[in-house]
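Table S2 (text version). Query chain:
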Amino acid sequence: MISRISPSVSAATRLPPPPPPLHLRTWPDQKALLADRAAALAALTVRRLAVTRLALLWLLGAVGAVGWAAVGLAIQSFEQGGLGQVTGLVALFLAALLLIPAGVALGFWLERGRTVRLRLEAWADLARDPAADVRVRAHRRCVLWLLPSVALCLLGVWATAAAWSSAGAGPGSATVGETVYALGLGLTILTTGVLGAVQSYAHQSWSGRFLSPVPERWGGGAHS
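Corresponding structure-token output:
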């Protein structure tokens, strides 16, 4: 039998490993399998919907917003000419210093989420345990992710629309630098909200599909 998995310890250290291959499984009985399965699912759910994970997403969004502000400043500085060229180069360097690492970190954030999802699916696929799986649905955590993410989506749509409408050739229109910054800010907020909302929806969709008490996934010999 594989070692028992503690949700609290796993959540604080590393992800629970995927279940062992079929030929290496040594659970003495179904009860032992279900115990390890429940512990792994609980730990993975905590990691998938952790508040710290949501906060990291917001932090990356904030870094992206500052990076777009640097891009807008660079464009404005280049438009001014003269010593503004130097300021523009410094601002461009700062923008790259912020946006590139933020993009790389977001890639790792997404890959981490994919790894957790695959392990959740692998453990859930071992058996069915409706009584224990109720906790794994994590409705409260999903709502905690969903509500602020939807608010960010609405704010991002409003900011993007306002930036687009303010751009133009009229005397009161925003400059190119201001427009670029405003559009970048709006799209960054919108993307942050969409990623958070998708994470919440994805867990609810997964739990409904893999943890359903209805024997549609395991019954009738349809699942191998």
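Notes on Table S2: The radius of gyration is 23 Å. The longest helix spans residues 84-124.
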